[in-house]
Design a protein that fits this description.
It is built from 19 helices and ten strands. With 478 residues, it is of the alpha/beta class. The strands form two sheets. The chain has an eight-stranded mixed β-sheet, with helices on both faces. The chain binds NADPH dihydro-nicotinamide-adenine-dinucleotide phosphate and ribulose-5-phosphate. Ribulose-5-phosphate (5RP) is lined by residues 104, 130, 132, 188, 191, 260-262, 264-265, 369. This is 6-phosphogluconate dehydrogenase, decarboxylating.
């Protein structure tokens, strides 16, 4: 039997769809899953694509079915399972075979796996894949990390299966070792912020303006034809206009308000903080999910404290307030993306990756969960100035911020006065307000630090005196 060009382990949601995508693009693929029933079911349902698929029930059979040097995609639960699977696979592999971890790995695990395989003769690629079930099946965005040589060996097949934006493939080699998984992690951090901001706007429409779910869906549907055009707004409309077949109510109204999370948002925040980058919108989104999960505590607190004592939602001309909400969401998105890209710029220096910002924006324009028209604008901004300190000071985004931040300010203050929690929107506003102010208030913090800990400070006039006259001789002003 003709050998496969590539193998894939893990026929769950992502792996099975990725395998069908690979087979559909004319690549012969061998597949394996820990539980063989999944392999049998997958093959039985593969239809015409069966001709390009070799289903295998043992690792030995699986490896033998692939033409060396073998590229093998591992698309399974992230974390320890990947280490276990790699250990089980290794004895069957030969020099130059490539193990490609395509799950949502923590880039630190990816770096460790690279280190462990160094000098083993085997090659490793850490690859972020975004697009969910549908993207995996018809074209995901793919973020590759590893040696350039190993990328060259998988470039053709990955290009064939990736999403295309105006014929440009949404796949790229982003740098050595953990680069691909780092970029995927930040993609997800931005995804968290985007989703939290949309949910906050939904909250204002639902609890402030008292619109029904289908009415809110229509608002999002309208916005999807404007500058907010994006996959997340598109699916929000679909979700909000769906009806629960059991109760006949809007589907979203019967879903418990507790959001899950698997780690990538948290890792984004941890890495941002480790490198001293303010990623406040992403932090707010992760904290928002944590608070959402504390449902029993929130319900108990509502009984004790009651809902906030507030002024009613200010009477606004409905149309202009809706325009404010649309602009506010756009403005807040700028902060989230600016922060995400700033984290990647810092990581690029820290880990010596030379992450290509215009390319990252480019490959996020199609296929991935945060795909949007907005990312095309970000691509243009970074193409003109790839080394800019912050997206928000590029001419296009400075204009966008100046055109929309008054709306964001009105929306945040209205929400605050109405007792509606908008942590991501308000953090975005606070970020702009802090970032654009040349003289802030940290002079007082420096004075306090010097007072209690003799930590010293710099003076605005450059005079070489680094302690204050705080008295008691604790800090030396001499
Ligand atoms: N779902 C999504 O939208 C996206 C998911 N990802 C990432 O892709 C990866 C796969 O996710 P997804 O397809 O959703 O997950 P699923 O839960 O659908 O599938 C999990 C797969 O992992 C396998 N698996 C679990 N534990 C082990 C183990 N110890 N050894 C070997 N195989 C194991 C399962 O095999 P078995 O059938 O035997 O249980 C199954 O094939 C994850 O890293 C996820 O974070 C990335 C992008 C999007
Ligand atoms: O990577 C993804 C999308 O890009 C996955 O769907 C991931 O599971 C999303 O993260 P979380 O489960 O933490 O919401």
């Amino acid at each position: 039997m003709e050998q496969a060009e590539i193998g894939l382990i893990g026929l769950g949601v992502m792996g099975s769809n990725l395998a069908l995508n690979i087979a559909e693009k004319g690549n012969r693929i061998a597949v394996f899953n820990r539980s063989p029933e999944a392999t049998r079911k997958f093959f039985a349902e593969a239809g015409d694509l069966q001709k390009n698929i070799i289903p295998c029930e043992t690792l030995e059979e699986f490896v033998a079915a692939i033409r060396p040097p073998r590229p093998i995609i591992i698309m399974i639960k992230a974390g320890d399972p990947v280490d276990q699977q790699m250990e089980l696979l290794k004895p069957y592999l030969a020099d130059n075979d490539i193990m490609i971890d395509a799950g949502n790995a923590n880039f630190r695990d990816t770096m460790r796996r690279f280190e462990n395989l160094k000098d083993s003769g085997l090659t490793f690629i850490g690859m972020g894949v975004s697009g969910g079930e549908e993207g995996a099946r018809h074209g995901p965005s793919i973020m590759v990390g590893g040696t350039e040589e190993s990328w060259k060996r998988v470039e053709k097949v990955l290009t064939s299966i990736s999403a295309k934006f105006h014929n440009e493939p949404c796949v790229a080699w982003l740098g050595e070792n953990g680069a691909g998984h780092f970029v995927k992690t930040i993609h997800n951090g931005i995804e968290y912020a985007d989703m939290q901001m949309i949910a906050e706007i939904y909250g204002i429409l639902r609890d402030g303006l008292k619109l029904s779910a289908p009415e809110i869906g229509q608002v999002f549907g309208k916005w999807n034809s404007g500058r907010l055009n994006s996959y997340l707004i598109e699916i929000s409309e679909k979700v909000l206009t769906a009806t629960d077949p059991i109760s006949g109510k809007p589907m979203v109204d019967v879903i418990v308000d507790q959001a899950g999370q698997k780690g990538t948002g948290k890792w984004s925040v941890i890495e941002a903080q480790n490198m001293g980058v303010a990623a406040t919108a992403i932090e707010a989104a992760v904290a928002g999910r944590i608070l959402s999960s504390q449902k029993a505590e929130r319900e108990a607190a509502e009984k004790i404290l009651g809902l906030p004592q507030t002024t009613a939602m200010p009477a606004t001309d409905g149309l202009s307030f809706l325009e404010d909400l649309e602009n506010a969401l756009l403005a807040a998105k700028v902060a989230a993306y600016a922060q995400g890209f700033a984290v990647m710029a810092a990581a690029s220096k820290e880990y010596g990756w030379s992450l290509p910002m215009p390319t990252i924006a480019k490959i996020w324009r199609e296929g991935c969960i945060i795909r949007s028209q907005f990312l095309d604008e970000i691509t243009s901004a970074f193409t003109k100035d790839p080394d800019v300190a912050n997206l928000i000071v590029t001419p296009a985004f400075a204009k966008l911020v100046n055109d929309t931040d008054a709306s964001l300010r009105r929306v945040v203050s209205t929400a605050v006065m109405s007792g509606l929690s908008v942590p991501a929107l308000s953090s975005a506003l606070a970020y702009f307000d802090a970032y654009r102010r040349g003289r802030g208030t940290a002079n007082l913090i420096q004075a306090q630090r010097d007072f209690f800990g003799a930590h010293g400070f710099d003076r605005v006039d450059g005079v070489d005196k680094h302690h204050g006259p705080w008295g008691s001789g604790l800090a030396d002003f001499a």
